[in-house]
């Protein structure tokens, strides 16, 4: 009996160990359901520069450069090489730290001994821009603590360590609060929280700006791959299904298969019983269908797709029933929404939803066929045929024109005329991806490449290390960089602009829906087109525009594909591909 008990105990320990990331033996009696393993890691980064000090007086701020040195996170009794902040009755000490690029996480502060062994009060302000970190929460420029606390007061321990904050930031301002107070700081390090995953996809061309744009889009999405796939690491830290489509396209091109995608898709499904729409928006349940189609094509996971069948088929039938006698979408009981910049244009929204419904039902027909449901597939195809009989006028809306083109309702050349009007004016960071896709469908690859340079490029010029929730090319006039304090006479690109729900500093400067150039460059410039589920057939069809070469990699379930496309003296492009066994390659020059 004792031997049997020992065996059972050992087996339980093995199961518990694998499920709980090697918790200490004292937890052996815990319930497994109470244990959750984090999917992210933490790394500690020292700031790269001190951007601002409240005073140059060494009596108030001394040895601030010490904070730029590497740390070990451990307080000690040496009392040497410390940053010391002192307040008098009149002079207050404060510093602004720059960590060099956008991060997700918090701040670790390591302290020395304090007067009387008492805690020392400080104010901490995180900012995605230098000016946001210097701002106050008020009604002037929209600074908030929404979704993530970024402005608060805390007490630091005597000879200890405190970790605080969970937000998106690049800059941190630290202010000593009380009169006649003193703070001795050994370290002030960023706590960088992220998924420790490799960048399997890559992109390198003869244009360094395009290369940087590709990587910035990839990094933006990487930051938002937390326990779930968020849209923004400072604000909108939620699973917004529509916003996910550019993100999941980026993930497929850069990271390959990641459990954050099905985990987030399933969360949206499970909290949205039909006939409700995901996130309360009519179009967002459509994006759920489109993401599943693209994700299945990339990963070929039929078992996972089958798990969606009951919900998917019911959702498709729900949409089909909302086409009226005039073959027009008549979608109700949810917010009619494409993106924020188009949200006040009811005609554009109708035109966009007409096109998007056709896209959704086309994808739905494909998925129903895979799931051996010919009845639903036929119903979807018949509904798309009806929708094509009624093509609304997109007006000047680039969002609506893009969707009408991608759905096959509008000739690509006609849509491209709308998209090309005034260049990248009236682009948006979310729907910019679909504008690029529609330009490609019209064969305007050079125009799309130029749009990427002209729209996403200026964000980098302004100091961005991640792409923003929105951007308007008209903001550029006399604008300051986000990594400097706003000079007199300049416009604050962060605090002075924005609209709708992202006015001023509430504006997110790390928003995954803005990553569209990354998958677009992989698909149309590097030339990778997935033609069969699981990437078992890839068509390599590069469009170099004015580039001399492009090379890169593409992750598939069967391994990494390597591609190099080189323009020859004749003007033709030489395509060189190395692919794992099991992948058929079709080259189109």
TrEMBL record:
Signal peptide: 1-21
Keywords: Signal
Limits of the Alpha-L-rhamnosidase six-hairpin glycosidase domain: 200-389
One Pfam family matching this protein: Bac_rhamnosid6H
Residue ranges of domain Glycosyl hydrolase family 78 alpha-rhamnosidase N-terminal in the record: 90-184
Record carries keyword Repeat: no
Entry-linked InterPro entries: 6-hairpin_glycosidase_sf, 6hp_glycosidase-like_sf, Bac_rhamnosid6H, Glyco_hydro_78_N
Official protein name in the record: Alpha-L-rhamnosidase
Organism of origin: Mucilaginibacter lutimaris
């Amino acid at each position: 009996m004792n031997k049997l008990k020992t065996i059972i105990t050992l087996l339980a320990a093995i199961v518990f160990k694998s499920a709980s990331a090697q918790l200490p033996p004292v937890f052996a009696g815990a319930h497994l359901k109470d244990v959750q393993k984090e999917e992210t890691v933490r790394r500690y980064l020292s700031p790269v520069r001190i951007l601002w000090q409240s005073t140059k007086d060494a009596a108030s701020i001394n040895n601030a450069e010490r904070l730029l040195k590497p740390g070990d996170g451990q307080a000690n009794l040496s009392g040497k090489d410390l940053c010391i902040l002192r307040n008098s009755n009149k002079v207050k000490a404060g510093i602004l730290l720059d960590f060099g690029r956008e991060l997700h996480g918090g701040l670790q502060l390591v302290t020395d001994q304090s007067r009387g062994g008492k805690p020392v009060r400080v104010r901490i302000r995180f900012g995605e821009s230098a000016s946001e970190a210097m701002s106050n929460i008020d009604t002037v420029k929209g600074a908030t603590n929404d979704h993530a606390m970024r402005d608060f007061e805390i007490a630091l321990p005597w000879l200890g360590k405190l970790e605080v904050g969970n937000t998106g930031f690049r800059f941190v301002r630290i202010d000593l609060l009380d009169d006649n107070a003193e703070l001795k700081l050994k370290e002030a390090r960023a706590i960088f929280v992220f998924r420790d995953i490799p960048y399997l996809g890559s992109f390198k061309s003869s244009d360094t700006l395009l290369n940087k744009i590709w990587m910035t889009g990839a990094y933006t999405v990487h930051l938002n791959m937390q326990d779930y796939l968020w849209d923004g690491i400072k604000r909108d830290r939620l699973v917004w299904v529509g916003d996910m489509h550019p993100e999941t396209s980026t993930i497929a091109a850069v990271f390959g298969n990641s459990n954050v995608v099905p985990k987030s898709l399933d969360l949206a499904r499970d909290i949205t019983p039909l006939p409700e729409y995901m996130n309360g928006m009519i179009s967002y349940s459509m994006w759920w269908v489109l993401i599943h189609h693209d994700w299945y094509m990339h990963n070929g996971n039929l078992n996972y797709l089958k798990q969606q069948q009951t919900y998917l088929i019911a959702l498709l039938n729900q949409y089909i029933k909302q086409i009226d006698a005039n073959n027009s979408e008549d979608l109700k009981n949810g917010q009619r929404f494409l993106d924020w910049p188009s949200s006040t244009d009811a005609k554009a929204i109708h035109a966009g939803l007409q096109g998007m419904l056709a896209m959704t039902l086309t994808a739905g027909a494909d998925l129903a066929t895979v799931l051996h449901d010919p009845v639903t597939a036929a119903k979807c195809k018949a509904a798309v045929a009806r929708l094509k009989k009624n093509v609304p006028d997109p007006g000047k809306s680039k969002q609506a024109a893009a969707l009408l083109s991608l759905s096959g309702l509008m000739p690509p050349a006609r849509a491209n005329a709308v998209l090309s009007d005034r260049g990248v004016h009236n682009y948006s960071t979310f729907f910019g991806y679909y504008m690029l896709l529609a330009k490609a469908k019209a064969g305007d690859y050079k125009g799309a490449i130029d749009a990427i340079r002209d729209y996403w490029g200026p964000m980098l010029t302004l100091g961005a290390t991640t792409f923003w929730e929105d951007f308007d090319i008209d903001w550029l006039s006399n604008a300051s960089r986000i990594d400097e304090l706003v000079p007199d006479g300049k416009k604050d690109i962060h605090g002075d602009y924005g609209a709708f729900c992202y006015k001023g500093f509430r504006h997110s400067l790390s928003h995954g829906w803005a990553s569209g150039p990354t998958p677009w460059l992989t698909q149309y410039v590097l030339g990778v087109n997935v033609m069969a589920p699981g990437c078992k057939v890839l068509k390599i069809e590069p469009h170099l525009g004015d580039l001399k070469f492009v090379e890169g990699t593409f992750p598939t379930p069967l391994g990494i594909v390597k591609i190099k496309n080189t323009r020859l003296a004749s003007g033709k492009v030489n395509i060189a591909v190395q692919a794992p066994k099991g992948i058929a390659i079709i080259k189109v020059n």
